[in-house]
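User: I'm putting together a teaching handout on how multi-component assemblies are represented. Below are the sequence lines for each component of a complex, exactly as they appear in our records. Could you produce the 3D structure of the whole assembly as structure tokens, so the students can see both representations side by side? Please keep the chain order the same as the input.
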Amino acid sequence: MSPDTNTDTSTSTGMGTDSTDRHRLSARNLTVGYHGKPVIDELDVHIPDGSFTVIVGANGCGKSTLLRTLARVLSPLRGTVFLDGEPIHALPPKQVARRLGLLPQGPVAPDGITVLDLVARGRHPHQNLLSRWSEADERAVRDAMAATDTTELADAYLDELSGGQRQRVWLAMALAQETGILLLDEPTTFLDLAHQVEVLNLCARLHAAGRTLVAVLHDLNLACRYADHLIAMRDGAIAAVGRPGEVVTPELIEDVFGLPCRVIDDPETGTPLVIPLAPNPLRQEASSS
Amino acid sequence: MRARIGMSARIDMRARISTVPAGSGRAARLRPVTVRIGAKRGRPGRSVISFRLSLRACLVIAALVAAGLVISALTLSTGSYHVPLSDVVRTVFGDGSTLDRFIITRLREPRLLTALAVGAALGAGGALFQSVSRNPLGSPDIIGFDTGAATGALIVITLIHGTAAQTAAGAVLGGLATAAAVYFLAMRHGVHGYRLILVGIGVGALLSAVNGYLLIRASENDAQSAALWLIGSLNGRGWDYVGPEALALAVLLPAAWWISRALGVLELGDDLSRGLGLRVEWLRGTALLVGVALAASATAAAGPVGFVALSAPQIARRLTATAGPNTLTSALAGAVLLAGSDLAAQQFPTGLPVGVVTAVLGGLYLAWLLSREWRKGRP
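Assistant: Of course. Below is the structure of the complete assembly, with chains in the same order as your input.
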């Protein structure tokens, strides 16, 4: 029985010095589709280690598909996802799950499950027949609940929590998995603005603590504020990659979303703020600068 | 590596009052106890064996075992020939009069053991099916097993006029064939819960029509024995039924227990489970296979006894208040439910089939439980 060594350290065994081999998570020539029809076509991507990468794009552009393929949930038609230099789909699933976690969009919990029970299930990849609840499991769950501020909810039933609390509990479950890379598929959907900010502030703290985060987000302005690496997708391909301040321009937004807009500096953070152009009747005459 | 065996059951049972939103009005709940055995040498803070033990689950198991023992004693004691409880105990442990020995070990004991084993198989199988289908009404019939088994049995009874053993074999074959057909019809890039249920309903409806046709064109005698088989009965079950059923349980119950922890994770959804390192298709296929095998063994022994597979897991879940398949508690609840129903059935002078009683008892209990929870405002 091999001990759970800390797999967070990079163990890249990449033979080439290709740029994709320098990062823990990357994909090459990725073609993914449903029923043989490609949604993503011949895509190359890498996730910089330690980044807070946010994937944005219009509905149906393939951002969720990309995230789920990176998480090994979907199998690509062609191409390869590399985790620590190895093809992820050839690795044993539990081994992957100890290095890379996924919080899918709108997860559903069974009836009558308590918060503690749910968070504890995040430890599954670290457990086996004999070691069902080790000291490490207990510590990981306690830390995850402390980090997400859900410790006091431990004995509550999930279905009696508010949407924001529930999302924090799901994040606690993903954290308890103790992976260096965490993929989040629209972690803020169905939340009001205050709870969206709360969840993203939590993500920012996790990122500051050294985790690599990859999230699909709908809100461009929040994406620009929190991401240090932005991937904009259009029609299953990558339209732009880089720091939000460098890549987010009115031209890019028009190109990716088909939305005419202005881009100004966020007065709070200096990051890009996308202002959609207003049609004539809504326009303020004096506002032209 | 030599592990130093030392019991260190660290107990975390401070009955903490949870600080959930005010107004939820929940009382203090017991946290599970952590048990760790055998410190790993040179690795402080790591144990060889570790698990969590829910005190409530232990209490529930103890209570179910006690209930099973009481029901067993009463079953062995009562009947047209009454044996006092003291004599029951003496006879079971190999003493007692010749008549007592004949009545108890030849007639009542095998029937009781068949009831307990069939009940356990139905309970555990139901727990697997409800977990996989994520549906509290899930049962082996979601993949057409029960209807297919009835078709097999009806063919043997009305067309071949076979013996009881042949009927059982026909039922098992019919059930397995139907389950396999539904599984493969529903399979496309893996089997999903919903498609399985829909295909199961379709095939089940088709076979129901076949069953109705077989019953209509059968002779009155055949139709009556078919109807008796269809409701499930334990009448006249001897030791030749106990052995195979016990063997099936000895293989299938550990298998069910083995996969039940992963099934608890699978209830969180396919994507999340894959993210947590589960082989989803493999797990679901195994769970269905074990569940169908449990149902098949039960059907072979007692016919399609209704409602145990449906209600035992629900009863277990509510007694333990734990999400997840609760496989072993469901098996115990099923055993108690079926043995208790058979005890009740035997009180009727005409010998009521046990299937009638399980439907009434299980239905009433479930209705009571649900109504109580609705009143408490929890779905």
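A couple of points students might notice: Confidence is low (pLDDT under 50) at residues 1-28 of chain B. The CA atoms of residues 158 and 221 of chain B lie 9 Å apart.
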